[in-house]
Amino acid sequence: MSHIYSIVDYYGIQNVSKCGYCKTKEGHKDHGMWLYYLTVADYQNLIDRGWRRSGDYGYKPITHDACCPLYSIRCSASDLKLSKSQKKVIKRFNRFVTHDERRKWHGKDGNSSRDNMEVCFEQPVPTNNIECAQVTISKQVIQVDSISTMQKPIQVPLKVEPSGDANQGPRHPGKKKHLRMERAKQRVMAKGKTEQEAIEILKAKKRYPKPRTLEDLLNDCEKSEKAHNFRIEIVQSSPPNDRFESTFKQEYALYLSYQVNVHKDKPEKCNENQFRRFLVNSPLEPQYVGVDNAPIQKFGSYHQQYWLDDKLIAVGVIDILPQCLSSVYFFYDPEYSDLILGTYGSMRELLLVRELHRFLPSLQYYYMGYYIHSCPKMRYKARISPSYLLCPETYSWQPVIDCIEKIEQHGYCRLNENLSIKDENDVTNYEPVLILHRHNILRYSDFKRECEKEDTTDMKEYVRSVGRKCAYSMLLFRG
Ligand SMILES: [Zn+2]
């Protein structure tokens, strides 16, 4: 059986002319590489080193001198603690499905359409396509001259979030019950018990309700009598399965409407090809999960489609990897923006992680892309709790709550305060780094012998940016 390798072409450090978040001219710099072919294990290692993909293009922001430092952010789905605001979003959606009820929104998470900025940019297109099935390269020379024209995140006007407090909502169905419980608790505590003991006593008497889980809340819209039919479908987008092909036109129409109405893009910018390059193409090679009855049979790239009465109203673009679900993008029908579908979609994706976790114990995280503290639209990510930021020096995950103050003070900082912790995935030995050169897989030293003239500076930069594990397992394409 032949071994399947990832094949990448490193483009070096790219300048981003203008920052899409704070609008300064300095912007920041990214490592960039073309991802011809990627195993799910290699991609897991790459995102754990700060990389992300947009279509077939991979990038990793250089954080230390950026105007707006970007930190990768993930949530541990099995430990999820829902905020009041998040519960309200779910209940609001349930009321719509069961009673066709729609109201004005007053919640804290407001209409902060889930942030999609970081991944929404034009990617460079390789000038030559290589066939990458199991190291069969059809054309050797790849010219990389289109990269300098690369543009960075589209600018989305930053709206100030509505400042409404969770208690100012239109109605509070659980409030009386909450007061009753509170009084019962106080009565027990008056007899000399601690708060925790009082809760335990009431729970034993079944007078203190168990907190409702994400599953309980989301399943509430599945009642038998309801005003609308709502269902979610996971379709494999790359390679596209039949269901994906047959719903493609509807997805594209929804995407166009979302980009034009929500992001104010020009329609000609969002043509079908752009949609495919950005959200359908994926370098990920599907790989069997190896467990029967799991919600999906393969790791890889999917679209999660939200159908309301047979009308497509939202799509979540996701990658399912050995340890996480990585959210790529989310778009929805602007007609339903009062349902806060961005936040609702995050909750659904978290639920999927929890379902997958039951079959695949090591899959337990929800990756939300990058977190930029100075960007108010991103704060919703830190409110999905408990969340962690990736330390840009040790590549260890640190609780968000321990990081916020440091970031507020310094902008960029090493998040792991323990100075004895080193980057475990650092490279000191370049010998085993793999290079694909003229159809041959070479080790770094052999490649250097063969191509004496080749400047290997950017190769070392590549090795450090992807880390040891990936540098030793992926093939760096050098024509
Ligand atoms: Zn900036």
TrEMBL record:
Region (Disordered): 159-179
Its EC number(s): 2.3.2.8
Annotated ranges, domain N-end aminoacyl transferase N-terminal: 17-88
Function in brief: Involved in the post-translational conjugation of arginine to the N-terminal aspartate or glutamate of a protein. This arginylation is required for degradation of the protein via the ubiquitin pathway.
InterPro entries xrefs: Acyl_CoA_acyltransferase (IPR016181), Arg-tRNA-P_Trfase_1_euk (IPR017137), N-end_Aminoacyl_Trfase (IPR030700), N-end_Aminoacyl_Trfase_C (IPR007472), N-end_Aminoacyl_Trfase_N (IPR007471)
Entry's Gene Ontology molecular function annotations: arginyl-tRNA--protein transferase activity
Cell inner membrane found in the keyword field: no
Reaction it catalyzes: an N-terminal L-alpha-aminoacyl-[protein] + L-arginyl-tRNA(Arg) = an N-terminal L-arginyl-L-aminoacyl-[protein] + tRNA(Arg) + H(+)
Domain annotation N-end rule aminoacyl transferase C-terminal: ranges: 251-391
One GO term describing the cellular component: cytoplasm
Family: Belongs to the R-transferase family.
Lineage summary: Eukaryota, Metazoa, Ecdysozoa, Arthropoda, Hexapoda
Species annotation: Parthenolecanium corni
Name of the protein in its database record: Arginyl-tRNA--protein transferase 1
Keyword flag Phosphoprotein: no
Keywords of the record: Acyltransferase, Transferase, Ubl conjugation pathway
